[in-house]
Structures are given as C-alpha cells and as structure tokens.
Write a structure and sequence with these properties.
6 strands, Aminopeptidase, alpha+beta
C-alpha cells in the first residue's frame, strides 16, 4: 500500500531547494528519496517514526525521526535523527511547524533518543532560524548530495530533555 502523501515531500523539497541545484540532479534526488517504494519501506521500518499533520483531511506537513548513525560532531548520548521535516507552504508561519516539532521530539524519545540531531542545508536560513528559536544549536557540518551536486548541511542538535526543546 503506498503512503498517504505521495506528492507533499517531492513538491515541498522542489519548492524549497529546486533553485539551488540543477534540474537533472533534483529529479534524480527526488526519484531516489521520495519514491512510493522508498516511502513504503520507511513506514515499515521499526527504526523510523512518521508523524502526519493533517487539516480538513489534507496533509499539511509531516516529520520523520529515525535511529541512524550520527555524524562525529554529534556528541550527545543516544542520538536520534530528525530526518525529515516538511510543512506545506500554506501552513508555514501559522504555528504548525512548532506543534510538529514537539511531536517529533516526543517520537525521538520513544525511539530512546536523549539527543536529537538534524541536517539542514546551509542556505536554508528560515529553517536554521526556526531550529535555533526552538533550542537547537549548531554542532558542525557535513556534505549532502543532491544527485551529483555536493552541498553542505549544518548539523544541529538539542538534548531531548532540554527546557528549550520546542
């Protein structure tokens, strides 16, 4: 059974980052990262929790947290990754992102996470600002590949029990 959100991640990713990479690299990345087969596998994975934010039976956003090997710059205990975090444009700036983030941090705790880390493109100032406002701190960087295009992502972390956490 395909996931209930076949177009939101692709459309949101392309809308947010499409200007920053070539069209062939973007198409290749979207095909490998957001195919129905890939998303169905993520739903079956016991190390991934998917959270859907809906309104009037339509998808407004979603987040995924997962147990995954953290980069060396993540030094906190029991790290869990906030892997995907998307809010559809009509819902941005309306408080949904904060609610979704709180749910994602709770899900990270369910996976045993004491430290939550994420990777965000260095050119996404709005997202970086949002994460900082909600208690994340910059811990370093690592490469991120969109097709053959090497980009740089900032690694941001928060202790799940931090009073600043969302």
């Amino acid at each position: 059974m395909p996931p209930p959100w076949p177009t939101l991640p692709r459309a949101t990713y392309a809308d947010t980052f499409g200007h920053a990479t070539g069209p062939d690299d973007l198409v290749a990345y979207l095909a490998s990262s957001y195919s129905e087969h890939q998303q169905a596998a993520e739903l079956r994975d016991p190390d991934v929790i998917t959270i859907l934010a809906t309104s009037d039976r339509s998808l407004a956003g979603y987040a995924q947290v997962r147990r995954y090997a953290a980069p060396k710059c993540v030094t906190g205990q029991d790290p869990v990754e906030l892997w995907r975090f998307y809010v559809d444009r009509p819902w941005q700036g309306r408080g949904l992102a904060r609610e979704l983030l709180m749910a994602a941090l709770s899900a990270a705790s369910e996976l045993g996470g004491q430290t939550v880390w994420l990777s965000v493109w260095e050119g996404n100032a709005r997202a970086i600002s949002f994460y900082k406002k909600n208690g994340f701190r910059d811990a370093g960087s690592h490469p991120f590949w969109v097709g053959t295009d090497r980009q740089t992502d900032r690694i941001m972390v928060i202790e799940a029990s931090s009073p600043d956490a969302a």
